[in-house]
Design a protein that fits this description.
The protein is mainly alpha-helical and 422 residues long. The chain has 22 helices and no strands. Helix 6 packs antiparallel against helix 7 and helix 9 runs antiparallel to helix 10.
């Protein structure tokens, strides 16, 4: 009997505490969600659900967190729970529709968006996603009907013209597609997707110079879109500009790799692990950008707009203002002066006269990775260092094979491997 009474007494304060702190925990969870700490937000939403399982809000927001973590099945299940508790929450249908699209459940997504539009018939996002669902099902007539409704709600919504143009392309109506893309550009000449969409049509029409010109307008407006570089490479290839095509393919691969790793690192890793990862990759991106700007100025005499388009649009220790000064300096000497003002000049003695830029780049990274490995031997720094050293091995083997192929002497080969000017 005493044991039973003690158990009740222990449980009672816990329940009271949960009731008192639920609002506060919910606020902390939403803040974590806002700052993209999805795993932490889910942990707090779990506490609210355990305390008050009848509320729809924690299920709704936990679904949003799971959607961002690409747990689409979990997001759909949480939306089910939220809708069961409150069937009038438009956002729950919207998130469940997105989760279903990502699982290729297009019929279910269409059902969700139609239900949400019943409650909010002028919601542009809902019409947009309903159209996308019909396009994914290849129901182009239904997609065009959706777009007509969307344009009645918002006649200046450029995305609607772009989607209708895409539908026309699928229906082999190039003229109608081109008209819609031109209309989108008329409404917003700073929309990179509109320039890229029209460029695709020009590619299909074998108007390669015009396609390249449109991609040249799209790329500065959306520098992180690797697809634009790939398609511009195709346009350049057909104009026999093989150097330009290879440059675009190379940049697209680097851009996709670094952008993906940067996003994944911020999303998956937390705390000290994330700090180490972002430092290693952030500095690598900075140093690559410095190297590419130097080459563009010294060997190719490129203009600033062209240099911007070939750099990775992520900045770590080089501030945006510094980056702009580096790109827009008129001479190589002024570029070297501006480099001397950056973080890397004092930290790693960058731009040494007796070494090539490639060797300075590798020296800086080697020092960075080995220092991290020594300071944090039980962290992701070990993985980063291992991958870097493997890259170094591959680089040395490739360089040595190239030197042998072209008949270089032993001294010249060692010079290339060491990076020291002989």
């Amino acid at each position: 009997m005493i044991k039973r009474i003690l158990t009740v007494l222990l449980l009672f304060p816990t329940l009271v505490c949960a009731q008192i702190n639920t609002d506060r925990v919910m606020t902390i969870a939403r803040n974590a969600l806002y700052f993209e700490d999805y795993v932490l937000s889910i942990q707090y939403f779990n506490q609210v659900i355990n305390a008050k399982p009848y509320l729809y809000e924690p299920y709704f927001f936990r679904a949003l967190a799971k959607l961002n973590l690409e747990d689409f099945q979990g997001a759909e299940a949480d939306c089910d729970a939220a809708i069961q508790r409150n069937p009038f929450v438009v956002g729950a249908y919207q998130i469940r529709g997105l989760a279903r699209i990502r699982q290729s459940k297009f019929d279910g997504a269409i059902e969700d968006y139609k239900k949400a539009l019943h409650y909010d018939p002028e919601n542009i996002t809902l019409w947009h996603n309903l159209t996308l669902s019909h396009i994914q099902k290849k129901d182009y007539n239904a997609a065009k009907e959706d777009l007509e409704s969307l344009l009645k709600v918002s006649p200046r919504y450029t995305r609607a013209y772009l989607m209708r143009g895409e539908v026309s392309l699928q229906q082999k109506d190039t003229i109608a597609a081109l008209n819609d893309f031109n209309k989108a550009l008329e409404l917003d000449k700073y929309d990179p997707d509109a320039w890229a969409a029209r460029a695709i049509v020009k590619l299909q029409q074998a108007k390669y110079a015009e396609a390249e010109a449109d991609f040249n307008r799209a790329i500065p407006l959306s520098a992180k879109n690797a697809g634009n570089y790939i398609n511009r490479a195709l346009a350049r290839f057909h104009q026999n500009n093989l150097r330009g095509a290879m440059s675009d393919y190379d940049l697209a691969l680097d851009l996709y790799y670094f952008s993906t790793m940067w996003k994944k690192g911020k999303r998956v890793l937390k705390g000290h692990e994330q700090k180490i990862f972002l430092k290693d990759y952030g500095m690598k991106i900075d140093l690559l950008n410095l190297q590419w700007i130097y080459r563009a100025k010294k060997y190719y005499h490129m203009l600033p707009p062209d240099i911007y388009s070939m750099t990775i649009p992520i900045h770590y220790r080089v501030r945006v203002e510094e980056f702009k000064s580096l790109v827009e300096t008129p001479t190589l000497e002024q570029f070297e002066t501006e480099v001397g003002k950056t973080y890397y000049a004092g930290k790693y003695d960058y731009m040494q006269a007796d070494k090539t830029l490639e060797q300075m780049y590798r020296d800086c990274l080697r020092k960075l990775y080995l220092t991290d490995k020594r300071n944090d031997p039980y962290s992701i720094a070990i993985v980063n260092t291992y991958l870097f050293l493997k890259e170094e091995e591959i680089y040395n083997l490739t360089t040595a094979l190239g030197c042998i192929r072209y008949g270089l002497t032993k001294g010249d080969t060692l010079g290339y491997l060491g990076g020291v000017n002989q």
